[in-house]
Amino acid sequence: METRSITAEIPMAPRMSEDPAELVPELGEVSAALFKVTGNGSVPRATISLVQLRAGQIAGSTYLTVLHTGFLRTAGESEERIASVTSWQDSPYFTSAERAALALVEAVLQPSADGERVSDELYAQVAECYEPRALATLMFAIGQVNFFTAVALIAKPVPGRSFSEPWK
């Protein structure tokens, strides 16, 4: 496998030239359902976006990181909160519920030396912050971003373009 020099220019074109949603139009129903689930109001939209930003960072997806940073800015989140998502553990800008959500997404997305990724202790801490419906919604929000992480890493849409036009 050929590796790219760290100083090489990154192409500003998607790897996949056609929009996967146009190739598989059934994706629209799935995507709409996922957005409806995560937008059911049981978890603040800001928390969902923070979790999805952290997931994009963990996955190493510039597209998802830029996308969710933009969503947070549009929603009026402060630059301090957005910038400190990557170091949330020692940042003073997050509530205990947001910290629990960020810990959960990290546990799900990162291998654990101890075996089980989401320990009973972590689950209990998250469950203290979220009612059952909200916890289920948070779980689906993590699943939603994982669903789109595969698209972002494989098809490589162009970062910074409109959510509906990363393929042009």
Task: Provide an overview of this structure.
Helices cover 58% and strands 0% of the residues. Helix 3 (45-59) runs parallel beside helix 6 (96-109). The protein has 168 residues and is an all-alpha fold. The two termini are 27 Å apart.
Element pattern in H and E = HHHHHHHH
Strand % is: under 5%
Task: Describe the main β-sheet briefly.
Answer: none
Percent of residues in helices comes to: 55-70%
Overall 3D shape: globular
> How would you state the average pLDDT, rounded?
89
Structural class: mainly alpha
> What's the end-to-end separation, in Å?
27 Å
Uncertain regions spanning at least 5 consecutive residues: none
Number of strands: 0
